[in-house]
Amino acid sequence: MANRAKSSEKECKAALNAVGDALYVIGGKWKLPIIVALLEGNKRFNELQRSVKGISARVLSNELKQLEMNGFVKRNVYTQAPVVVEYELTEYCDTLGEVLYALHTWGAMHRDKILGRGVEVSTEPSLPHAATAAETTTVHH
Question: Euclidean distance between the first and final Cα of the chain, in Å?
């Protein structure tokens, strides 16, 4: 962190606003597990509820509405008899790919750190396949 350039107050505020917006949209206990469950394919409400262990129907309904409002989930209603409602991820949700990968990578590293295991950590924000041995350091706890 010592080699980071100083940001202006305006740049810092803009960055914090952007992170705050992202956390508002995908943060919380249930949004990412719902998205991950839908990565397996389209699901009806009850299938989705079974896939996301511990979520109540009311909370799932509210989370799906928020995900739909923010453009991550599409609700498809098929008017056959009986009416079928299915949820699917939108193309816009694909923009979360690198974010999910970064959260996964950081979360695994953090878990290893907290559990006291050494772990290789890239000092670059690039994907691991692009990192060289010179860009990594070993964390020991």
Answer: 18
